[in-house]
Amino acid sequence: MLLTKRNEYALQAMVLLARRGGEGAASARELAAALRTSPGFMSKIARQLAAAGLVRARSGKGGGLALARPARRIRARDIFRAVDGELRVSQCMAEGRCTHRACPVYGPLRAVQSGLDREINAVRLSQFVHAGKGAR
């Protein structure tokens, strides 16, 4: 299982917004430029984040995107779910059952899925904000 580009860019955009603090909102175009992606792609992600209640979007002068709540109250899972749905280690986990008659991997994969769920529920946006400042 890999994070999708949407997951990665959504997380990066949320980190940038959190690091702005009280500096005001950022436009999707500004975020796209900072992350070296297309404004259209970032606008779609921004709409998804706004629909999930993770960012506030305002138009007009002084408008743009800002976090809807403090970074410490936003889980990694919230961000990933907003743009791509739940993260699953296999299709079986998404369906909640194995489609094979006798499956030797479903049980162990279920344990891996439980661990993933536990971890992404525990990690907060604030942890990303303070980790790796200035790293590339």
Classify the beta-strand content into a percent band: 5-15%
What's the CATH class label of the domain at 5-86 and 124-130?
Mainly Alpha
CATH topology-level fold name of the domain at 5-86 and 124-130: Arc Repressor Mutant, subunit A
Largest sheet strand order:
1-2
The N- and C-terminal alpha carbons lie at a distance of 23 Å
CATH architecture of the domain at 5-86 and 124-130: Orthogonal Bundle
Shape: elongated
How many helices does DSSP assign? 7
Helical content (DSSP H or I, runs of 4+)? 40-55%
Could you name the ranges where pLDDT drops below 50 across 5 or more consecutive residues?
none
Question: Please, what is the CATH homologous superfamily of the domain at 5-86 and 124-130?
Answer: Winged helix-like DNA-binding domain superfamily/Winged helix DNA-binding domain
Oligomer: single chain
Number of E-type strands: 2
Task: Give the SSE string.
Answer: HHHEEHHHH
The helix/strand class is mainly alpha
Average pLDDT: 88
Which sheet architecture does the biggest sheet show? 2 strands, antiparallel
* Radius of gyration using CA atoms only: 17 Å
